[in-house]
Specification:
homodimer; alpha/beta; TIM Barrel; 2 domains; 8-stranded parallel beta sheet; 3-stranded antiparallel beta sheet; 16 strands; 17% strand
């Protein structure tokens, strides 16, 4: 089935909205934070972990799965859900972001993008049609249009041409799209140019998609303010009855700022990446578990947290695991960091329903920023 | 409490014995295979995994915990059980094996062993008293005497002197031992010399311990036959009413050969180390999951296995995880390999009670060796 968004309540003090998303795997409340499972696994977690942190939609990366193990193997397994044993909704990105960030192509044409595999240097060619074909075979619940992600430093001229090409690519992708149980989202680009964001949003909506993403803000932007502007420039032109997804953003403050502007879905590798380097979110800011002050700290990372990490293990133990390079340490911190962001989203949903989103935002960020500053 | 072994049944066709071991954390049936948690974690597993594979006793390494995080931190945490959140019996080795295998000391004196840390090259000195003091603080359920582990190539003269010194070390360790809820095991050495094994066993028993280990067979022996001989040379001189532990051995065939000779407990890093390299035990022999033939094999590693890996994941998926260097792959194979050996031990216990140990051994090994040869 196509995902179906229902707007249930808008906070009376801002654009933050509470709604539901019907999917092939049940109905979920939005806004949500979505864990990233790049290579058909949320790094270091198993599927029980993914469920226990109360994930709704999880992400997987088309580019990575195309290269390894290949979309045909995933398809023969019965699709991505069966392959990785996840009976919840999965969103696949288009590969565009990875092609531009990992593979750094030099050859972008109307037809598509030539680049080299980041694994073995093999020459590859990705087109809008190919991206959709791969995603159709992966059989995710939500597929994304193939787009160009130009750097923030791109000139107006370059960005305008890029936005126009991305629109043609979006149309081409939609034309070959061929999986009845999958939804297709369009992506708004345009950098930090107000008129290009408006143009991109309006034209993308004209093509018509099951949901809309705001893209191009996760790479080399100059400031968070730029990102917030890009959201502000895009949202007014998106339909109220479709979900809105901000791609690749996951700092707590950004989740609040995005939701305040009308975003329903966010994803980011940040929580698992931070975990692998020994960093943990807490209500009083980020901590580095390797810090000597946790050597004999036999309390959990967050006493109020309900994750498996905080219920069973202490800072001193996790510090030992991270320093001794034991993968359990990375996994426990990944579970905690993901649960931390997901529980923020849970609290955000509650606060919107009570028209108290801005109060919750202030309360959370005041405490979160206090210690770190 | 001191562990208490009760012999309940001896197979009428060989020396294999079935019994129980009372511990601080309940009573367990023997023989058992014990997973190794070197740095206070069974590599890649969490404590729920450890319980789900039906572990009884698990091992941890004194040498590693002495270096990181240090025995005082573990002690302040409330002991190793609380530190790692395991409410089951833990055995700590003495550090002797690691000092000789990892740190390769050149300076062994009557007093102890000077060597360099394998982590940072720091000069360290380990004595029998220090090993026991560390283990007392770690507060494991079973501590091991500090012993020298000479190479198999040692001359008779060297081995004789070493055995005598290890006996003096055992006595010194017992004299300072000071933890009422901990048991202390002695270790029989003597290489592959029949009279030295006899001498070592008899003299170790005279000192008097809560259990006895056969040591010195896990390093550079020339053949499996040598190892079996070393067991045969030692067992007759060990008391029937104490548990017998073969240190560092875990190939399936060796578990059978050891139990047949009267061994009750075994441990080995093999199952988790194999897993990290993509190898899995199956009833038809070991497999390398990276093999191309598993690319599209959507069946579990072992259809009859009841582990979390085999219940939920396929060979094709695990192959993908291992090749993509995702730690979930290592963890799933570790869970499976440990469960494989633990379930062999479960079947062994059942077979001994029915006087059918030799039948089960033949049935298992005939199938296990068939494909690989």
């Amino acid at each position: 089935m196509k995902v179906k968004y229902t707007l249930l309540h808008q906070d009376k003090n801002c654009k933050a909205r509470y709604g539901t998303l019907e999917t092939n795997y049940g109905t979920y409340e939005l806004p949500i934070f979505m864990p990233v499972g790049t290579q058909a696994t949320v790094k270091t977690l198993d599927i029980r972990d993914v469920k226990e942190i109360n994930s709704a939609v999880i992400l997987s990366n088309t580019y990575h799965l195309w290269l390894r193990p290949g979309e045909d193997i995933v398809n023969k397994a019965g699709g991505l859900h069966k392959f990785m044993n996840y009976d919840g909704p999965i969103l696949t990105d288009s590969g565009g972001f990875q092609v531009f960030s990992l593979a750094k192509p030099k050859d972008i044409s109307e037809e598509g993008v030539k680049f080299k595999s980041h694994i073995n240097g093999e020459k590859l060619f990705l087109t809008p049609e190919k991206s959709i074909e791969i995603q159709n075979k992966l059989d995710s619940d939500i597929a994304m249009s193939f787009d160009e992600c130009p750097p923030a430093s791109a000139t107006y001229e370059y960005m305008k041409n890029s936005v126009e090409r991305t629109l043609r690519w979006a149309k081409r992708g939609k034309d070959v799209f061929n999986n009845p149980r999958q939804s297709l989202f369009g992506i708004v680009q345009g950098g930090y140019y107000k008129d290009l964001r408006k143009f991109s949003a309006e034209e993308t909506v004209k093509i018509g998609f099951d949901g809309y993403a705001v893209g191009g803000v996760a790479n080399d932007r100059e400031s968070k303010e730029d990102m917030y502007k890009a959201i502000d420039y895009s949202i007014p032109y998106l339909p109220e009855d479709k979900p809105r997804y901000l791609m690749g953003v996951g700092e707590p403050v950004d989740i609040f700022e995005a939701v305040e502007r009308g975003i329903d879905m966010l994803d980011c590798v940040l929580p698992t990446r931070l975990a692998r380097h020994g960093h943990a979110f807490t209500k009083d800011g980020k901590i580095n578990i390797k810090n000597a002050k946790y050597k004999e700290d036999f309390t959990p990372i967050d006493k109020e947290c309900d994750c498996e990490c905080c219920k069973h293990y202490t800072k001193a133990y996790i510090r030992h695991l991270i320093i001794a390079e034991e993968t359990l340490g990375q996994r426990l911190l990944s579970i905690h960091n993901l649960r931390f962001l997901i529980s923020i989203a849970e609290n955000i949903r509650k606060s919107i329903k009570e028209d108290k989103f801005l109060d919750y935002k202030k309360e959370f960020l005041d405490r979160y920023n206090k210690v770190n500053k």
